[in-house]
Amino acid sequence: MKIMNNLFFMLICFASILMAENYLINGGQESQINYQMVQKVEPVSGTNKLILSYVIPESFSSPTYVQKITAFRIEFSVPPNKREEDVDRRGNKILRATWNRPDRAITSSIQLTALNSTGLQRIKTQAPFPVASVPSAEQAYLGNSEQVPTTNPEIVALAKKLTAKSRTQFDAVQQILTWV
Question: What is the pTM of this model?
Answer without folding.
Answer: 0.62
